[in-house]
Amino acid sequence: LHHLAVTDDDAANLADALEFIAGDLVLHEMSQVSDRFLRDLVDSLVKLTVFFQQGGFRIDLPMAAERLRGAKRILDVGTGEGQLARVACSLDAELVVGIDPTWTQIEVAARKGGDAAYLRSEAAQLPFADNSFDCVLACLVFEHIAAVDSAIAEVARVLEPGGRFVFFLNHPLLQTPGSGWIDDTILEEQYWRIGPYLIEADEIEEVEKNVFIPFVHRPMSRYVNAMAQNGLLLTEMQEPAPAPGFLELAGEYSESGTIPRLLLLHATKVDVNNQGGTSG
After folding, report:
1. Phi, psi (5° rounding) for residue 86?
2. Among residues 227, 226, 201, which one has the least CA distance to residue 214?
3. Which of 26, 3, 25 is nearest to 14 (CA)?
4. How far apart are the C-alpha atoms of 279 and 266, rounded to whole Å?
5. What's this model's pTM, rounded to 2 decimal places?
6. Which end of the chain has fewer CB within 10 Å, C or N?
7. SS3 of 262, please?
């Protein structure tokens, strides 16, 4: 549950993940696990499964919809199975295109229907002309892109002047590798531990059973400076609290509600050709 924004398929994938967790418990920890612990674990997992199925983790969906509204030509970078592309279509956009580097995701997105078009493409080399879109969306994608500077430059290139970039990240500070909620039963205190924030680090994440993808941690300044260098002016930043329903499932960790897991950067492309004044 490291990431609170998840896809349509996660409710189904959760079963495999829980099987993997349960197998690990049986193999390594069963001698140390009490019957009460197991009952509490099963109860919590049932609640979490229902919460997944109801879309309770998707705090990004309403935030994205609000910022996409009114856009006519939308590009969804790293569309995955296309959920946000379908949200964009529901907002009466004239054109919605989702791109992803993997054929499997593109095929899943196409099967799920809707009016979006899907293409296989890398974010660092977009197959579109300059100024093709008035909105580009990227949700929890750029952490998995090695060529981040090229990808942000491509976003700026395909955006028309005045166009918007709606950019979701796992919070670079508070989701640094090694970060997490600590329940110290010896000192009787709870706190959020932060890992080595300023160090860029590449890791491999197991996002599903036997499915591994790269994850690149970067400081927030790395993204903001790359945006500035490409004429993407930051106009809004949001650090939303976790979904209320998630916190209700674990009341003993209510203080963790003060720690955002998600970061939204909302930028506008500046027309660099019209910057500066004229002398009289």
Report:
1. -70, -35
2. 201
3. 3
4. 33
5. 0.77
6. C
7. strand
Q: What is the DSSP letter of 130?
A: T
Q: Which residues contact 247 (CB under 8 A, 6 or more apart)?
A: 253, 254, 256, 257
3-state SS, residue 97: strand
The 10s digit of each residue's pLDDT in 164-182 is 999 999 999 988 888 887 8
177, two tokens? 């590798």
Reported as a single tens digit per residue, the pLDDT across 203-233 is 887 766 677 788 999 999 999 999 999 999 9
Phi-psi region of 113 (alpha: psi -120 to 50; beta: other; left: phi over 0): left
Of the candidates 199, 200, 198, 202, the one whose C-alpha atom is nearest the C-alpha of residue 215 is 202
Q: What CA–CA distances, in Å, run from 207 to 9, 106, 129, 204?
A: 12, 18, 33, 9
Taking 80 as the threshold, does the pLDDT of residue 104 lie above it? yes
Q: Which residue has the tokens 């790269």?
A: 214
Over the stretch 57-91, which tens digit does the pLDDT of each residue have?
A: 567 788 999 999 999 999 999 999 999 999 999 99
